[in-house]
Amino acid sequence: MTALTLSTAGAATLRADALVVGVAKGVKGPVLAPGSEAVDKAFDGKLAAVLATLGATGAEGELTKLPAASGLKAPVVVAVGLGPVPDKEDAYDAEALRRAAGTAARALSGSKKAGFALPAGSVEDAAAVAEGALLGSYAFTAYQGSENKLAPKDAKSKDSGPKQPLAEVALLGGKPRDKAYKAAVERALALVEEINRARDLINTPPNDLYPESFAAVATAAGKEHGVKVQVLDEKALVKGGYGGLLGVGQGSTNGPRLVKLAYTHPKAEKTLALVGKGITYDSGGISLKPAGHNETMKCDMSGAAAVFAAVITAARLGLKVNVTGWLALAENMPSGNATRPGDVLRMYSGKTVEVLNTDAEGRLVLADALTRASEEKPDAIVDVATLTGAMVLALGNRTFGIMANDDAFRTSVHEIAEEVGEASWPMPLPADLRKGMDSPTADMANMGERMGGGLVAGLFLKEFVGEGIAWAHLDIAGPAYHEGAPYGYTPKGGTGSAIRTLVRLAERTADGDLG
After folding, report:
1. What is the dihedral of CA 309, 480, 192, 19, to 10 degrees?
2. What are the φ and ψ backbone dihedral angles of 376, each rounded to 5 degrees?
3. What single DSSP character describes residue 340?
4. Which of 24, 70, 95, 156 could cross-link to 421 by cystine, CB 3.0-4.6 Å?
């Protein structure tokens, strides 16, 4: 991954391929942001005027490259838009800084080193720039050019492959010897390394990532970072009565798994359980998805990737909280062994569920994991899932929905998500929608009313949460996988949605502020 350093050099003396400065959108034209003073001085105080001549306005996402003035060691200056000038000169929004840093990092792919002279006068600003630059530098190249995993080991590719990510980010304007700045940079490195690992998992083709191989990745990471990992294979799932996981996975030659990751701290007073949907490929099963709806279904394990990343990050940061992750892994395929619409599954909880649609499979694997997680009586449970297209229709491609059995907890999770820059929205769980899941054959069905389908799915999951446990459900179906052009620090493909929210929630819990 891209290296990150708190540089002791000034912008004028730093030897790098490029210098990145921020520019905001003012009433009369572009306004230079704090951090750009030395670069502006090299331009005789006329950098803003030069940028305006080149058409720069300071709008968010705008990027302008220009040759550096003679007083700078770097040959190129990259001016990146921060959006409107804030009311206070030094009060740039953290998310604006993340996005600007990400935009610049993406534009500098192929470069060895870049100095980021964006606002970094506070620890929070420095952390935002660091996160954005590292997130924006991400690229998934494992199957391209000379890195192609599918090519014979002795084959010499004539194609040199895609540009590699920016190799090093030098963060300027911070305080390299200040413990708080050092801690912020170390946190950003740990967090983004795990987010990018999750992105890699989401982007990995389903012929290489299936329940067993995902479990192997989790096991290896657990050993590396002191996290206990337990994997329940098919035999263990049958013995334990995990009917939801088995029912979804029985149509595939790649059997299901339930993976438990447990990070514990000797001084922890609270326990947070995280549950992730891990459908490594979702064909829809017998209720087969139509053409055009299954090409990106390798991303249906994004919730499990988020949970995995959050637990490992908590361990790397040494948070004073116990965090347990449950990865409900299965591949949903049609075959002669597959669950049929009309079949009844006996879940781990003992409840029976009539399967009316095998493409509503995520709630079935999550139900088993939620019940199992509840048995350990954590202080709170959060599940994360690419669960419903209905949530995408409701909130679009960039916002995830939050449902909960406790209004205060839902509000807390929403505030945390907004704080870390992840767009989200609190959603209700209307009691009247529960009746639609009544079944004449079983205790309940896995489908209900079509309208409000995302809320129906949330109500289904609620049935499997232990009594008295605060629970929140994050439906990340929209933002988990980005099919359009990259923007800010968001790449094409897997995004790592919800990981920053889960990690901050763990930090808040460690501080005694669960919500």
Report:
1. 180
2. -85, 0
3. P
4. 95
